[in-house]
Amino acid sequence: MRVIILVGLLLAASMAVAQDDPYHPVISLPDIEFNVQDVIGVLSDYNVISEDNPTFCSQYYGLTDFQSRTISICSRMGQSLKKRTLIHEVLHVLYWNRGIQTSGSADLAVQIKATEIFMKLYGEK
User: Fold this and answer.
1) Is the dihedral of CA 31, 10, 118, 47 positive or negative?
2) What is the pLDDT of residues 44-57, one digit of tens each?
3) Which of 5, 53, 81, 97 could pair with 77 in a Cys bridge, judged by C-beta atoms 3.0 to 4.6 Å apart?
4) DSSP structural state of residue 25
């Protein structure tokens, strides 16, 4: 099964709003295709850590360290938010593996794509 990331109306609407805000511009990311093998490759190549540190959880839902090949997910969230966050962090790696930078203002575009995928898979917010 191929999962295709499509930029939908949500991304277009978000970008239109963000363009009006010069302090928080959204950087457009190209659509990428990936399959289950790609996701399993990321999850087997990166150490996924459930982080319980209150300081970490007060600053992040998740964080990917490309150098140490670690994905940290805050454990103090509900299952839906953990799943959405894991999708978000895996997307960072998939883009990184293709040489596409997703930090800074591009993070919002990653979040929008992660939410789209989450909604397709689980149909909930």
Assistant:
1) positive
2) 999 999 999 999 99
3) 81
4) P
In angstroms, how far apart are the furthest CA atoms of the chain?
Answer: 40
- pTM of this structure: 0.78
> CA 89 → CA 16, 54, 92, 117, 123, distances in Å?
24, 20, 5, 12, 19
CATH hierarchy code of domain 2-122: 1.10.10
pLDDT tens-digit readout, 79-119 = 999 999 999 999 999 999 999 999 888 999 999 999 999 99
- Boundaries of every domain in the chain: 2-122
- Report the candidate in 106, 109, 87, 110 with the shortest Cα–Cα distance to residue 38: 87
- Predicted confidence band at 28 (pLDDT cuts at 50, 70, 90)? confident
User: What residue type is assigned to position 109 of the chain?
Assistant: A
Total count of residues recorded for the chain = 125
Q: Is the distance from CB of 90 to CB of 71 less than 8 angstroms?
A: yes
Q: What is the separation of C-alpha 92 from the centre of its chain, rounded to a whole number of angstroms? A: 6
